[in-house]
Amino acid sequence: QVQLVESGGGLVQPGGSLRLSCVGSGRIFSINTMGWYRQAPGKEREFVASIPSGGVTYYADSVKGRFTISRDNAQNTVYLQMNSLKPEDTAVYYCTLAVGGRNYWGQGTQVTVSS
Length: 115
Prior knowledge:
Oligomer: single chain
Distance between the termini: 40 Å
Largest sheet: 7 strands, mixed
Strand content: over 45%
Structural class: mainly beta
Mean pLDDT: 94
Number of strands: 11
């Protein structure tokens, strides 16, 4: 089994920063894609960013230039550095892992951007 545990969410003022972390454990093979999705109240879950094992990064247009995804393969950890946060970034952020033809999800961490 694969488990993903997120941390780092919280309340931040507009323009502020947060760093999310997600640690994976279990049967995680070296070739995989880790990433982040988010879901705001009343909205569909949406893609935020992803990073395959090779390190190429992909971002939603709404976060390009503000968010940075990175990973530590030795620690099976993916990070999401979020800068210049806006109220519309408020959502539950979910870590994902795609490996062996399956997708796994973390339990989510709440990010609230409000003054």
